[in-house]
Amino acid sequence: MKRILAVAVLCSLVLPHAALAQARRRAAAPPSPPPPAPQPQPQPQPTILFGAPVSGLNAAQTARFNEGRTEFGNVETVDDGLGPVFNGRSCGECHNQPVLGGGSNRTVTRIGRTLNGVYDPLTNLGGQLLQNQAIGPRDGSSHAFRPEQVPQQANVVTRRKSTPLFGLGYVDATPDQTFINLAAAQAARNDGTAGRVALVDNPVAGTRTVGKFGWKAQIATLLQFSGDAYLNEMGITSPAFPNENCPSGNCAELQFNPRPGLNDGGEDVQLLAEFMAILAAPPRGATNADTNAGEQVFNQLGCNSCHVQSLQTGANAIAALNRVTYQPYSDFLLHDMGALGDGIPQGAASAREFRTAPLWGLRILTQFLHDGRAATIEAAIAAHDGQGRASRDRFNALNTTERNRLLAFLRSL
Ligand code: HEC
Ligand code: HEC
Q1: Smallest Cα–Cα separation from 393: which of 200, 192, 214, 256?
Q2: Which of 40, 67, 112, 140 is least buried, going by the fewest C-beta atoms within 10 A?
Q3: Is 231 a pocket residue for ligand 1 (Cβ < 6 Å)?
């Protein structure tokens, strides 16, 4: 009974996207009348679709995925512990394109003050991440919680776009040593593009481990990100993140918090992390001779110095994540991106560093780069600076044929 139910839920989840894939296939079909030259045969369509779980899960794991997905979309209320200040009421509010678990163009604001090259996150005014919503007055209280505003003292104000979460379980399941080796290999190449591992605090491990998540690789694990986002985006406290954000830095206001104490005993944080851990990678779009030739161009330009095609997971209890190769087109290392830098040091990242943005699933994005400043893929490439500059200059020098092939490849990801 349970099993049938889970399968039904799964199908309802996947079917609309089968329709989407159909439409895409049609859009990709050659125009009529068909040209005389033989057309490359499209490869078989992937069976896994956006928002599906990894394949080969057992019934219990599938049920857990569905439960986690529900929690991910669950809209929290003040009674549940939402706020006092927050940015969204559910994870899904920001992570929903094209389905729950994706990203979106929603941005959050990060602030700080830099004086003589020294960055101050303005903790006493509410800290680096702004919470731009608040629960207002609670029942029977004259105290109204107010949304945070950018304080006058801030001279660094920047935005961060909500990233898609597809396939991040593979990254979570990849041993730290892989990234350490990758950084060493890049350094040995000595071509000015070497990334470095972000060593960040990992409270569960009790030590610093490799940060892989967030625009600045500021977080080590999906579990940690769950708790962090629950608190900092939604105001839900949990065992690893027990302290509410002080609204605009005014901790005295917390005496009016209608839901003091832990809002989540840790179960939801765990469930959300498990959902993300088994959320399948973005399915690859259709490939053909052009996209294949475009990948060659990608490699010739040195885009793959940072956007590394393939990585391997380590040993894992979930069969689909156990020692498998996946294609994120990222090294998950930090790179100095020069003028693209946002002025915010975070975790191990400096003001100018970013994690190489994974390019899998690129075809469903409509805005690009950390703050969504680029409206097209070309504009995103053109904005590469610092360690990405030489590669960008080679892109600018491409002839039209090569450029179109490269773009065809990128739009197939
Ligand atoms: C108000 C919008 C918003 C809400 C609500 C939100 N997120 Fe996010 N999420 C973001 C943004 C923005 C980023 C990029 C953060 C950064 O790196 O600065 C992000 C990044 C992430 C990442 C890192 C992905 C990567 O590419 O490494 C994870 C994991 C994540 N969110 C999980 C969650 C979970 C789980 C919840 C609910 C508990 C949640 N988010 C709620 C906006 C949101
Ligand atoms: C030195 C490392 C490096 C090289 C080389 C590099 N990139 Fe990037 N790329 C990055 C980083 C880091 C980001 C994220 C920057 C940001 O968001 O500000 C990024 C972002 C992108 C994005 C936007 C992705 C998104 O999710 O918005 C695209 C597209 C992209 N790169 C394509 C390319 C192409 C094509 C090339 C080769 C011409 C290339 N990159 C070369 C490091 C690199």
Answers
A1: 192
A2: 140
A3: no
List the structure tokens of 155: 């001279």
Counting the structural domains of the chain, the total is 1
Output the CA 302–ligand 2 centroid distance in Å. Answer: 11
> Residue 8, exposed/middle/buried by CB under 10 A (0-12, 13-18, 19+)?
exposed
DSSP-derived 3-state class of residue 220:
coil
Residue 308 Cβ < 6 Å to ligand 1 = no
314 touches 332 (CB < 8 A)? no
> Would you call 113 helix, strand, or coil by DSSP?
strand
Exposure string of 239-258, with b = 16+ CB inside 10 Å and e = fewer, is: ebbeebbbbbeeeebeebbb
Ligand 1: atom nearest CA of 171 is 27
Is the distance from CB of 248 to CB of 148 less than 8 angstroms? yes
pLDDT in tens, 173-205: 999 999 999 999 999 999 999 999 999 999 889
pLDDT digits (tens, 9 = 90+) for 105-127: 999 999 999 999 999 999 999 99
Q: Summarize the confidence of residues 267-290 as an average pLDDT.
A: 97
CA distances from 243 to 125, 259, 269, 270, 370 (A): 16, 12, 15, 18, 28
* Domain annotation covers residue 122: yes
- Domain contains 163: yes
Angle at 355 (CA atoms; ends 196, 234), nearest 5 degrees: 130
401 in any annotated domain: yes
DSSP string, 169-196: HHHHTS-HHHHHHHHHHHHHH-SS---B
Domain that holds residue 156: 59-410
| 358 CA: nearest ligand 1 atom | 26
**What pTM was estimated for this model as a whole?**
0.90
50 inside domain: no
Helix, strand, coil % (nearest 5) of the chain? 35, 15, 50
CB neighbours of 346 closer than 8 A, spacing ≥ 6?
110, 128, 214, 216, 218
Tokens 């973005």 identify what position? 282
User: Is residue 110 within 6 Å of ligand 2 at its C-beta?
Assistant: no
Question: Which residue puts its alpha carbon closest to atom 37 of ligand 1?
Answer: 91
Instruction: Check pocket membership of 380 for ligand 2, CB cut-off 6 A.
Output: yes
